[in-house]
Design a protein that fits this description.
With 309 residues, the chain is an alpha/beta fold. The protein is built from ten helices and 14 strands. The protein folds into two domains: 142 residues, Periplasmic binding protein-like II (D-Maltodextrin-Binding Protein, domain 2, 3-Layer(aba) Sandwich); 109 residues, D-Maltodextrin-Binding Protein, domain 2. Helix 2 links the parallel strand 1 and strand 2.
């Protein structure tokens, strides 16, 4: 009998401990400007760290990756739990990593927005094909409204894009040359200075340009609407923890402390449910496929989930 009791105690000791334990939650981002991203994420990270303590979270870390391949590897190994990005990039990443759409970020009172191709008011350009032989300013390769959506608008209209090393390079006669400015503010500046013949601007940017330079610029084409920032979650995250994260993010705007933290996170007003996330991704994935076919972008490497948490 004594031997049996000892055996039972040993087996109980070997069983996994089910009690709450300290865990780190990792927020991931794919962005060139690491310092800015860390600054923008800081208030959200600290808020989640406090709000999720009862769910076993003792620390919230921020991981910013400059390279897509490194980001995909990190997500695939379970080193990133939540990922925040623009919808087209999130849709593209959903093919490469084991993640699901969780929530949307609401900004400027809107859950969706657009990309606009803008030219000076006195420009002879009336259609996309009129941009042939000219230059357009895009923001950066990982921007939905600043590159991917307007690039799709151009190629779908028959335009042939070619990347230029700088805005001073000549454009082949049968192509539309594009350059990256690195930032939305830079894109607006380049357009107003006349350094490019056109620019891709989102709703907020075109409204700003119109406010500062009323009547000086016009839109020749607008993209379809797309969701604002998307919150993606790794499927390795425990369901109970996932439910706690969702609840905390959805309720943030209801308290003064939460509103301060959420506003500091890229000017977010609140998080809202994204129940039809995968269905919403279908047309965005079509955009990705068309851009890959047009050789504007490369397909993201497909990797399987390598680590469960």
């Amino acid at each position: 009998m004594l031997l049996l009791k000892r055996l039972i105690l040993i087996l109980l000791w070997l069983l996994p401990v089910q009690a709450t334990y300290a865990e780190t939650l990792v927020l991931g981002s794919l962005e060139n400007d690491v310092r800015r991203q860390l600054s923008e994420f800081e208030s959200l990270a600290r808020y989640l760290e406090d709000a999720l303590s009862d769910a076993g979270i003792s620390k919230v870390e921020i991981s910013v990756y400059r390279e897509e391949a490194s980001f995909i590897d990190a997500f695939s190994y379970g080193d990133i739990d939540l990922y925040f990005d623009t919808p087209v990039i999130a849709a593209k990443m959903s093919r490469a990593v084991d993640a699901k759409p969780l929530l949307l970020q609401l900004r400027d009172g809107e859950a969706t927005y657009h990309s606009h191709i803008v030219v000076p008011q006195n420009s002879p350009v009336q259609t996309i094909k009129d941009l042939t032989g000219l230059k357009i300013a895009f923001e950066e390769p990982d921007s939905s409204s600043g590159f991917l959506m307007p690039a799709d608008v151009i190629t779908s209209a028959g335009g042939k894009l070619v990347k230029l090393r700088s805005r001073k390079r000549n454009v082949p006669a049968d192509k539309i040359g594009y350059v990256f400015t690195g930032d939305g503010n830079n894109t607006m500046y380049w357009l107003t200075r006349g350094w490019t013949d056109a620019a891709a601007l989102n709703d907020r940017e075109i409204n700003h340009v119109e406010t500062v330079y009323p009547g000086h610029f016009r839109v020749i084409k607008t993209s379809a609407s797309m969701p604002r920032q998307v919150v993606m979650q790794g499927t390795h995250v425990d369901p109970d923890l996932s439910a706690a994260i969702t609840r905390v993010l959805l309720d943030m705007h209801q308290t003064a402390e939460g509103r301060v933290a959420i506003s500091a996170f890229f000017g977010t007003e609140r998080f809202v449910p994204f129940a039809d996330g995968r269905a919403t991704f279908v047309p965005l994935l079509d955009v990705i496929d068309r851009l890959i076919y047009a050789k504007v972008i490369a397909a993201a490497p497909n990797t399987a989930s390598k680590k469960a948490r």
